[in-house]
Design a protein that fits this description.
It holds the Pfam family WS_DGAT_cat. It comes from Streptomyces sp. 900116325. Pathway: Lipid metabolism; Glycerolipid metabolism; triacylglycerol biosynthesis. It is an enzyme of class 2 (transferase). By secondary structure, the chain is of the alpha+beta class. It has two domains: 173 residues, Chloramphenicol Acetyltransferase; 245 residues, Nonribosomal peptide synthetase, condensation domain (Chloramphenicol Acetyltransferase). The protein is 35% helix and 20% strand. The chain is built from eleven helices and 15 strands. α7 crosses α8. The chain is globular. It starts with a strand and ends in a 16-residue tail after the last helix.
């Protein structure tokens, strides 16, 4: 892999970052020791295994450097002095936080991950880090993965992170070992000069792209709010601190609700987030905002089988109906709004602001990204994203993956981001917040559990789907 210019959206993410606003996404993966007598690694061996596998992923050897042309641009290039152990490290919890019986390990790992997520990745090196978080050598351990958003969107993060797991790493090793036996089809020579049809097609495509960008830009202007009054915790001044919280929901229970209300599983989860925000605001004594808070809901524009370079994102803008008191009406309102978004498509409307990046020159990203980042608060209040994961059971060095909590970055002026992933029958929710604006983030995590519990309790009896109140959420 040689030199490769950063795609426009990648460049925007690169220039959006500051010390107080790191632009990395991440995940906290929790592993348990394998049941005896199955062999498995301890935390120290997991560190060595992570280092070996991460070093074998070519994308993780790339760093960003400035280029002369295009002006203001940047490129990926191989770090010739790459040392994987500048990126992969082990961190031990204090002795008082290692007792798994009392939930101490998970609470301690989450607290420590929050501190580590505050710190930007080093920009002169390949922009990623992994930490093995452990208590003792023979107990559970967690792996915190940090990837700069310029390096990966959600789909690419999954593809990169998957290379560390036993099942996928072994398949990759076999594929690399057998690559020399495959015969490549000969490619017929062709002229580098574009033909008339290619020139015409490029021109038409460019006109179409500019027209679409103009429409999105107009939608953004119309949707922007100059009056920023809203929920106090969501409109607080950024402090640069980070706090994490995690929770789990029963994926089967979410599916049963979806079969009643319709729509998609993600629609139901967005409704649960809306209900959790309402509960949280009322519990902490906040006045419900005059206007429902807006969520930016990212949508991948990556086509199956397409090259994995460059962020390919758009988003929908969704009003979260926290003013609606009835949980089922909240779900229906979310579904109606998302159906309307999907009918319009991911390349239209104010939520598609990311597609504007493709139409801006590199110099505009370099000098305009901080200004654009500061304006994000006028468009949305909270990021809510879903990250797909492999359905198969995963492990690291024989230690089974128990849970994986995705983490999204906070834009300037944002206090909360919510990320969701489904794995092994559970919906794992990772909450990232400004530590000073949202000191009670764990309460919000509990409110998500309470919201699902109430939905189950209110499930229509004629559906025959009522669950017992002691269902494990």
């Amino acid at each position: 892999m040689g030199t490769e210019l950063l795609a426009p959206l990648d460049l925007a993410f690169w220039h959006l970052e500051s010390d107080a606003h790191p632009m990395h996404l991440g995940a906290l993966a929790v592993f348990s020791p394998p049941p005896a007598p199955a062999p498995g690694v301890d935390a120290e061996a997991a560190l060595e295994l992570l280092g070996t596998r991460a070093a074998a992923i070519p994308r993780l050897r790339m760093r960003v450097r400035d280029v002369l042309l295009p002006v203001g641009g940047a490129a990926w290039s191989v770090d010739k002095d790459f040392d994987v152990y500048r990126h992969v490290k082990r961190v031990r919890l204090p002795q008082g936080e290692v007792d798994p019986a009392g939930g101490g390990f998970m609470a301690g790992a989450t607290r420590l991950a929050g501190e580590l997520m505050e710190q930007p990745v080093e920009r002169g090196l390949p922009p990623w880090q992994m930490y093995v978080i452990s208590g003792g050598d023979d107990g559970p351990f967690a792996v915190l993965v940090k990837l700069h958003h310029a390096l990966a969107d959600g789909m690419r993060a999954v593809a990169i992170g998957a290379g560390i797991f036993d099942e996928i790493a072994s398949v990759g090793a076999r594929a690399r070992g057998g690559a020399s036996t495959r015969l490549a089809r000969p490619v017929p020579p062709r002229s580098w000069m574009p033909g008339p049809r290619q020139v015409a097609g490029f021109a038409l495509g460019r006109i179409e792209d500019l027209g679409r960008a103009f429409g999105v830009g107009a939608s953004v202007v119309r949707a922007s709010r100059l009056d920023l009054r809203g929920a106090p915790a969501l409109t607080a001044t950024s402090s640069g601190t980070r706090r994490l919280a995690t929770t789990d929901l029963d994926a089967e229970a979410v599916g049963r609700i979806r079969r009643i209300v319709g729509g998609t599983t993600n629609d139901v989860l967005l409704g649960v987030v809306a209900g959790a925000l309402r509960r949280w605001m009322l519990e902490r004594g906040d006045r419900l905002p005059d206007a429902d808070p807006r969520a930016l809901v990212p949508v991948s524009r990556r086509r199956p089988g397409a090259a994995a370079t460059g962020n390919r994102l758009s988003a929908y803008l969704l009003g979260l109906p926290v003013s609606e008191a009835d949980p089922w009406n909240r779900l229906r309102a979310v579904r109606t709004a998302m159906d309307r978004n999907k009918a319009a498509g991911p390349l239209r409307g104010a939520g598609a602001v990311a597609v504007l990046a493709d139409q801006l020159p590199s110099l505009a990203h370099r000098f305009g990204a901080p200004l654009a980042g500061s304006a994000a608060r006028m468009l949305f209040d909270v990021l809510v994203t879903s990250v797909p994961l492999p359905r198969s059971a995963l492990s690291l060095g024989g230690c089974p993956l128990q849970a994986i909590y995705p983490m999204a970055p906070l834009a300037r002026g944002q206090s909360l981001a919510v990320a969701l992933s489904t794995y092994s029958g559970r919906v794992h929710i990772g909450l990232v917040a400004d530590g000073k604006a949202v000191p009670d983030l764990e309460r919000l995590a509990r409110c998500a559990e309470d919201e699902l519990r109430e939905l189950l309790a209110l499930m229509p009896a004629d559906q025959g789907a009522r669950l017992s109140e002691d269902v494990r959420l």
